[in-house]
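pinned: reference chain
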Amino acid sequence: MTGRPAIRVTVEDPETPDAALLLDELSDQLSLMTGSSGKASFDVNDVRGDRALFVVARDGDGKPVGCGALRPLEHHVAELKRMYSRRTVPGIGAAVLAHLEAQAQQLGYAAVRLETRAVNSRAVTFYERLGYARIANFGKYAGRPEAVCYEKRLAPG
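pinned: its structure tokens
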């Protein structure tokens, strides 16, 4: 059989061993790229509430290959956090993002916002390709030239 291995994305607690492993890998990658792990911008309790979630992507063999999270930012706006893909097979990031966007709609959000670093050209290209538009830096990212912020309006569900 040919084609991509199936990527399965499921809600998981951010402190399970697989989730913690993926989050540590993301922090290591961010430290190398930007000089900051990003850990200061993420609190596991932010993605455990009623309108929040953390997901893990697994490949066809059940191995963890990616993760991401949503947390409330405003009543109708969710913030995307801790997106990561091991890039072992194509489509991991897109699968995680599609899952999170669908969940955001079900939770009543009208838009998803995120921040990434300008130096992270792979992430910038990824989000722009998947329909995210550059917006003014929000919240703690305002006035920080190293940060770039994006938003995607979700189709009414």
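why pinned: The chain is about 25% helix and 30% strand. Helices lie at 17-34, 92-106, 121-129.
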